[in-house]
Amino acid sequence: MEYKIICNDEYETIEVAQNFESEKFENMVICLDGELGSGKTVFTKGIAQALGIEESITSPTFTIIKEYDSGEMPLYHMDVYRLDGNADGVGIEEYYNKGGIVIIEWAKTIKDILPEERLEIKFKVVDENRRMLVIKPYGQKYEELCEAVL
Ligand SMILES: Nc1ncnc2c1ncn2[C@@H]1O[C@H](COP(=O)(O)OP(=O)(O)OP(=O)(O)O)[C@@H](O)[C@H]1O
Ligand SMILES: [Mg+2]
Q1: Which of 13, 94, 100, 127 could share a disulfide with 74, CB 3.0–4.6 Å?
Q2: pLDDT of residue 59
Q3: What is the CB < 6 Å shell around ligand 1?
């Protein structure tokens, strides 16, 4: 099963993120892919905002993993672009069961170490303000999540 939705501006992307946050569960893993500037970090900001995280979310350019603890649940925001596919020794897997929400930008570059059960969202640039989100759940929990949210 695959869902496709169009977000007509960045606020609609944030709204989609908020809708997923409202159905959150511990150890939820969300994998984001799509070209530079397609909206992965905007989506992450939507999740963070809904969690009540006060710090501003920045792209973790120099740190691969950023941890935000001021919200309802910890948020682990990763951008694995710079790893160039080599995640050895980074310890990404340790975050899959820490009880928070894990968001991984450029997840497909480390597909060998992604958890079997996860939500995948691919961002496609339609034009300046529009993005197509192709959303794919892996595992029953994530299928139910999509049914609840979409
Ligand atoms: N519908 C939309 N949804 C999300 N972002 C949008 C949308 N329309 C325009 N934008 C703009 O596109 C940009 C998306 O930037 P963002 O940092 O989220 O991209 P990214 O996918 O995280 O890129 P990177 O791979 O560099 O981390 C922002 O400047 C945002 O304002
Ligand atoms: Mg980003």
Answers
A1: 100
A2: 77
A3: 7, 9-10, 12-13, 34, 36-42, 59, 105, 129-131
Q: Hey, what's the torsion of the CAs at 95, 99, 101, 104, to 10 degrees?
A: 10
The CATH number given to whatever domain includes residue 94 is: 3.40.50.300
Domain that includes residue 119, residue range:
3-149
Do 110 and 133 contact (CB within 8 A), yes or no?
no
pTM, 2 dp? 0.98
Q: How far is the centre of ligand 1, averaged over its atoms, from the C-alpha of 124 (Å)?
A: 10
Q: What is the pLDDT of residues 56-98, one digit of tens each?
A: 998 766 789 999 999 999 999 999 999 999 999 999 999 999 9
Residue 53 has pLDDT above 90, yes or no: yes
Domain count for the chain, please give it: 1
CA–centroid distance, residue 69 to ligand 1 (Å)? 24
